[in-house]
Write a structure and sequence with these properties.
globular; mainly alpha; 5 helices
Length: 105
């Protein structure tokens, strides 16, 4: 007899779901959006700026800043450059090894 999703602990459901490659990709994309949005928000707040002020400096509308900070927008390099300039930062673009990679045939 199969257990219903409500009877399984959250950690088990999460682990089972993340075992699927598609779910791992979606989770990673969400994590990136959230972390970059949080970094922008923290810097903006440290500078004492409002979302409206950041939007004006970056040439955006305030709702776009709110969506970005909430992780609702996938960051692009041009957008990150605009935020960096508006926040008095320099965007550092580099690639680094994430760990061993398995090559497929």
């Amino acid at each position: 007899m199969s257990r219903s999703p409500q009877s399984e602990p959250w950690a088990e459901l999460r682990q089972e779901t993340l075992a699927h490659p598609e779910a791992q990709e979606a989770y990673e994309a969400t994590r990136i959006r959230y972390e970059v949005g949080r970094a922008v928000r923290e810097r903006r707040e440290a500078l004492g700026m409002t979302q409206a002020q950041l939007a004006q400096e970056a040439g955006l509308q305030q709702p776009a800043v709110a969506r970005f900070e909430a992780g609702g927008t996938m960051p692009t390099l041009p957008l990150l450059e605009r935020f960096a300039a508006a926040l008095g930062l320099r965007l550092n673009r580099r690639l680094r090894a994430a760990g061993p990679r398995k090559l497929s045939n």
